[in-house]
Amino acid sequence: MKKFKELRIREVPSSVLGAARKETFAALEADLGRVESLGMFSFSVFAEYFEMVLLALRRQHPSEAPVTDEKAFLTQEARHSAACHVVNETALGSGAYRHDPCLGRIPNLVDTSLLRMDAAAEELAFVAAAIEASFGVQSVLVMENAGDPRWMKHPGTYYIFLYHMAEEAEHSQVSWAMYEQNFGAIDTGGPRFLAVLDAYGRSAARLMVRLGEQLGCPITLADALDTWMHVTNVGRTHALNRDFDRFTTARQDCVRQWDDTWEPMYRRACES
Ligand SMILES: [Fe+2]
Ligand SMILES: [Fe+2]
Fold this sequence. Notes:
two-stranded antiparallel ribbon, 70% helix, single chain, binds fe (ii) ion
């Protein structure tokens, strides 16, 4: 994975946060259908937790050779967690959280076994790099649909979703570089990397099912896996071809589209 620009810390405007707080999951489900709305929401809930893992990981194991963008990366991630929290808490309520001694506030429904904080630093850094790489793939796929008029009807929620995706596209090489500087090259076609991509997709699908139950709109695990396997399979294809670098141009386009086209459009929709 390659860097293509300096990381930019984007503010989420207060009008966006205000709009997101007024939007309901029931309305989202009515417009997008149960499976698609839960797919987006499961990413938001997983990400709120995962950003806390990334911050804790750097606190527990400060890198001996920090990568250049480390500070900006961590600032972006802390803000993602806070922005996702607005969307997630609005739908789930404050009772849907617990305090984890290592991570701080995390959603109850996430499965923490994918990233056990008592695992070795190398293992945690590897899993984090692979999941961030998967986020980079997902960002490109998601931004292709940013003009969907159904998304525009929920501008606060989708502003936060797309802003986050743009920054993930922008920084998904940082965890990768951090791993490679400290522990050596990642073999994307090897079984270890592919296993993490697969485990992340399955974990997100199970979270999607649990969120459906919690919100009173149950779905089957098969439908949830179908949603996540699409992202996993695109990532897997590029991993096996060892051409993740091809995503550099696509990631760059994704960020440019957000900044030039979609951000002003979604912001205006939140203000109106
Ligand atoms: Fe993030
Ligand atoms: Fe990230």
